[in-house]
Amino acid sequence: MDRRSSRQWWWHGAVGYEVYVRSFADANNDGTGDLEGIRRRLPYLRWLGVDAVWITPFFPSPGYDHGYDVSDYLGVDPKHGSLADFVRLTGDAHELGLHVIVDIVPNHTSSAHPWFRAALTGRDDPHRDFYIWRDPAPDGGPPNNWVSHFGGPAWTLDPASGQYYLHLFLPEQPDLNWTNPAVADAFDDILRFWMERGADGFRIDVAHGLAKDPWFRDNPQLAPVTPGMDPRAAFDRFEHRYDLDQNPNIEVYRRWHRVVAPYGALLLAETNAADPVRTARYHDGGDAIHRVFYLEIGWLDWQPMQLRDRIRGMHLAGPDSTAWILDSHDTSRAATRYGGGERGAHRVLCVKTLMVALGGMPVWYQGEELGLENGVIAPNDLTDPIATRNPGAAGRDGARTVMPWDGGPTNGFNDGATPWMRATPRRAAETVAGQRDDPTSFLTRHRALLTVRRTLPDLWQAPVEWLDTDDSLLMACRRGTVVVVANLDEHDAMLDLPEGRWRPVFSSRTGAPTSGTVTGRIGVPAETGLVLAEAL
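^ thats the sequence. predicted structure below, dont judge the formating
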């Protein structure tokens, strides 16, 4: 079927899977993950039961932010392969029924990008207006009080011109000027380039950051920033009223929607709007972003009441447009945040049981299906700029260690070369090989959950009816012929089932009922998710 003429959008009911390209699989044994490594592992992803593979940036890059500082949007960094490798990957993925999502970075480029290098040559260069420049404040300092996500001011002085340029991340990541039509035109061409080579969609990095306040007003400061403060904590000391989540962002994605529609491609947006209503507005009634990440859930520690409220709030605001995640390359792994050990991993699977019934698109992160906690990395081996440029800061490296395929010296990541980020190898019981044939493992239970979603389409297409419960931490909903329950409480609970006979078909824990039929009430063990199908 021609993807460009199809109106049966492939992402309805789909489950995504994030691959952190550097750490997933290293086919040429140079220590860095690559596209060929991903291609060889596609059968595993098909076996697991996901539908789409989101690949983090593989473009040419100096690597200051591990690929999110792009120096060429139309190429492949040699350490990750070649354009031919990408075409082979998409071809094999499509044969397996998988879709490929490219991670695009439109908020900023690398300072090594030819556009920025040209912009530095003088104020009259045509590419100067590709970026955001401002004159100094009256005291000669930065133009306003905006701060970088990665520490310090969001402005760096260009001594040659006497102006500051904006960078909401590293100084090596200058922000693009999306009020310039030439920038929008360039990205239209970039999107088409990758779709013509087999991309089925785009995950949009910092989708909420493109538009800025036209007057560059100071953000309200909520609390003092102290020396040596973790940059994320310092960032949170401000209300980001003027640098992020501006309304003109939506118009950018309306345009992108028109660009990708002829190809039947997905727009999957990373947004960091804390309010569910503001997050959902990026969908724009179906005319802009197709699926929108709600990152607030992905930052929470195990706080069941907050988790309950945020899930319900986001589902109410975007019942069909939300992309649901607990883990990503930007956060501490959920199993760690949820208390660690088997209990943390059980809590993750409990919440994910509910998420598969919430519409939109659930998205797994590599290794999440194994119940992985953060990797163990020696202080001298840290690589994340948050940690290396801010001593003592909590970086993101723990979530980025290599995917553990087996119990070998490099966990099967490659044939023995030292991985790009050194870490303590995973135990055999934490690997794919160690869990694949164990019917009680986290891997087999994750796979079983995805099988249930695929075989019971009411889980994602029937109307949602939230069920009343006696326990405030017992979340339950009915979708047509299916009931899904997540008991976030540390105590067992009882659920009054809808009228009829119900057949348990999945439990996030072994030992809970998954056979026979039940009527009236069912016991739900502590911190456990259940799926029940209507018995005929």
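The chain has a mean pLDDT of 95.
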